[in-house]
Structure formats: structure tokens, C-alpha cells
């Protein structure tokens, strides 16, 4: 189910409840969540839209191959999507197209301020089928086996009318002559990763009522309480095992170095030595 998004969450109200729940059609580039100037400065050094040569770990890598022939309509639509994404992507969505496989794309959506997903990174693999844009693209969410939202299954399934994976009226569904990848990504951010994800549940009778608020709060708190597990950030009340945190800290050096190679600045100061595991050898 796709609820209206509260503007307090830092995301536009992309569904008009008074107008039969119409979804986004005319996006605006000022619909961006607010982030601190320091983080914005660091993010500005990293291209929001770019291309990579290969996607060997892409969920849909076996759906086709580089030599497969596609129609001119298919190619022109994807190229048009690329141009729109390059020009209008908000600062909280990052996209990489694939040079060797035009049918593949990957997106990272940053959780908006004011939502339980604030500053979280959510990865989506995208595949453009042969009949695109007559049909919507296929989208897979990298869940890690976890369920964090009623519309994002632990199997990777994304529930959204724009994808044809949920019920919706004509204007909420994919429209070949109007719908774009930018619209789709902003819809995922605004309609799914919103301030009160509990209300994404279909057929919730107490939706947006005082009776429903305790359930909504409980759902949100359950996610927030679970999010810090495995965190290596100082001051967190929870965490994974010391072994897990040590391995993550070591891996972070590799991740930061790769981002620096891509031109991201202000990250070197984030590198810290991993925590030391103290083993008690006394018997």
C-alpha cells in the first residue's frame, strides 16, 4: 500500500489523498531531504549519476548478455532516462548505469531525515526488459535477508503500483509515454522509505487514526532498535560480536580507499584502527 508522505519527513507529499491518491508525475528538483552542510559538501564530490564497465554481482546479470540486440525504441528510452537522471537526480539518490550492459542499472537511495531510515543506504538493482518501456523495469532490493518495510520483502521484492507489483488506478501505474526512472526512484524514496512505514501495510483499518499511532510507533521503534546491531560507531548501545565489529572495521579501510579513488574527499579522517580483541587466556 502506498500512503501519502508527510512533508515533515523532508520528502514531498507525492500522493494527493484528495485527488484519489495520484502518484508522482511532475517531480520537482527542490524536493530534496535536508542534510547538514558538511555531509552535503562531502557528497558533492561524488557523482550522483555515472557509469561502470561491469556489474558482475548484479541480481539480473543472467537476464541477458552484452551482444543481445534490442529495439531502437528500447535504447532511446533508456538513453532518455540516463539524461534525466544525470540532470535531475536529488542529492540523496545515486545511480550507476552499465556500459557493457545497457539493460542493467544500480541505484542507492539514502534514507531521508525525519524517517526511521535516516542516512541509511538502500541498494536496488534494476533491469530493463526487452519490452521496456511498454512494461516497467524490474527492481530488486538488496535486503540482506531482513524485512525493514512492508513494501520491501526479505526476498528482494519491491511492492509498488508503479512497478505493477501492487494495485493502483491508471495514473498510479506505469505509463509508457510518461513514466521515468527518476519518477520510480523518487517514488521508492517517498512512498516506501517514509516517516511512518507501518501505514504501508495493506488493509490497516486504523490507518492515520489515533488508534493506529501506537502500532505505527512500535513498528518504527522496532526498526530503529534493530538498526544499530553490528554498528562500529562509538556510543551505540548495541552491537554485534567483537569479532564482527573488528572485521567490519578492517573492511571499512578498503571501502574508504575505493571511494577516495573515485574522487570522494573528506573520508581519510574517518579511517580509525579496528578495535582490539582481548582474549582471556586464564583458566
From TrEMBL:
Spell out the molecular function terms from Gene Ontology. ubiquitin conjugating enzyme activity
What are the residue boundaries of the UBC core domain, all occurrences included? 73-232
Q: Which domain of life is it from?
A: Eukaryota
InterPro entries attached here?
UBC (IPR000608), UBQ-conjugating_enzyme/RWD (IPR016135)
Q: Does the keyword 4Fe-4S apply?
A: no
> What CDD domains has UniProt attached to this entry?
UBCc_UBE2O
Q: Which Pfam families match?
A: UQ_con (PF00179)
For this UniProt record, give its keywords in alphabetical order, as a comma-separated list: Transferase, Ubl conjugation pathway
Protein name as catalogued: (rape) hypothetical protein
Q: Which organism is it from?
A: Brassica napus (Rape)
Q: Gene that codes for this?
A: BnaA05g14740D
